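My current task is to audit a protein record that another person submitted. My question to you is simply how this chain folds and whether the tokens agree. This is what I was given:
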Amino acid sequence: MGADRVSANPAAAAAVQSERVAARWRMLGLLCLAEICGMSLWFSATAVAPALSAVWHLSAATQTWLTLSVQIGFVAGTLLSAVLNLSDVVPVRKLFAVCSWAAALANLAILVAPTSSGWGVLALRFATGALLAGVYPTGMKMAAGWFVRERGLAIGAVVGALTLGSAAPHLFSGLFVASWRPVLLSASIAAAAGGLLLLATFREGPFAAPAPRFEPAFAARAIRHRGVRLALTGYLGHMWELYAMWAWVPAFILASFQQARVPNADSAANFVAFAVIGIGAAGCGVAGWLADRWGRSLVTIISMAVSGACALTVGLLFGASPGWTAAVLLIWGFAVVADSAQFSAAITELSEARFTGTALTLQTSLGFLLTMASIRLLPVFEHMVGWRFAMVLLVLGPVVGILGMAALKRSPFAGQIAGGRG
């Protein structure tokens, strides 16, 4: 009866529709804020790596593992979550909240970890990464539950929130340049608050659906589809560049500023690093909006072309005017992550329904495993050729990614992707 009265009254129907639209954007805003808070844990130790290395007597090689252990933990957590299908077994907002709180505690435990061995710190970073597998992928699932037509924009917003959260520790480090403890404490408080915010305010959307199952036996069959393989190629090229850039661009900025004799170089470098990584949030939103209109392949190709050009040329500005260096780095930060969500969206559109979960889990696992290689190799390459040429190593990713997505755009599978344009 109530629904009949609403449908018979155009004004009431319009009011109901307006409230639904407002609700979905309100939920997306809350979700993004919680994601920013939760993902601030990712680089919390990396942002203060020199200080942690001094306390735990970590070698230069071991210091890299402050980031790599998070990547490995995330892969392990993603696989475990997919096998157990946790996002369907546990209500998603509770899963998000519990994982945020547990990750915050793991990060906070570094403050009291024994300094006799660095392995305890690396184990805590691994645990943090594993628990964040319940924050980032879960957030994308929750966003999809509120959006259908503008899903590319919504998922892009969640990836943008991840980006801003990943940048946050560099802001904290700039504010607390004299100490590493407040940086870890701030990130942990933010993550705990984000979990509480989501648990208290978020509700699932009308389009929420069970997560597609991960079936290890289907892994080979999932990528037998040529369109899926091409989209995966694009994603792997993107990931080769992304996390190595995020992990090492703060060191590049600091070394460049020191060579240019910038006053208070440490603090200035932290703030610029925050801006360079954080501006990617805007890139994700713009790319998500454009991908729903221009097609995912074209947007990813443009994004990788811009980021690859920046990786190729930014070294020429090493030690130069900080304004020019920061300008190119901001363009790079905008483009390097802008296309991230579109690869996952393309794979969901290209996969058979029964293989979607397997394809997405495989994509995520392979992508984050690949980041370990580029994150580890970049400082080795820098030691050989210096920062002026080191970032050229990352150009390989955009080149391979562009070739994959260009082939996808020309293939018969392009019509399966949003907008029918690949």
In short: The mean pLDDT is 89. The longest helix spans residues 226-259.
